[in-house]
Hints:
Elements: H1 3-21, H2 39-42, H3 50-68, H4 73-93, H5 95-98, H6 109-132, H7 138-162
Amino acid sequence: MNSVNINSIIRFVVLILAQVLVFNNINFLGNINPYPYILFILLFPINNNRTLFIFLSFMLGLFVDLFSDSGGIHAAACVTIAFIRPPVLKFTFGMIYEYQTIKFNNTEFSSRIVYFSILVVIHHLIMFLLEIFNIYNIIFVLQKTLFSSIFTILLCALISILFSNKQR
């Protein structure tokens, strides 16, 4: 096992525990919940096996579902963003992605925020659509998606800055 695999395993376990023990208990203003566990999907190494990545994303969502008693909505949202991640990476990072040389700690902060924002909004929209599952509450779904996405993006950016290995 190399250090990338060990870091991924540690990140997987720590983010699940943090989500289940800390972030699931935050309910700001009734409908703002952070979901930083998806940082595992966002920061997973680019050049690893895609099938393994989608499976790990499913397992991540499944574990959060099991501890949150949420019926599979996290697993569905995680698999979706894992599946659409390559086009989002290509859109956000361009040629760096083409050559498979992305190191998230070395990318521009603005590109990283755009990348985080796209995937977080898609994740939250799918998750809240499946949670509420009523077209008459679409405004409520969009409201929860917007506010929870902002909170999650800020939290993911803060965590990625705090734990980055970039030498300054």
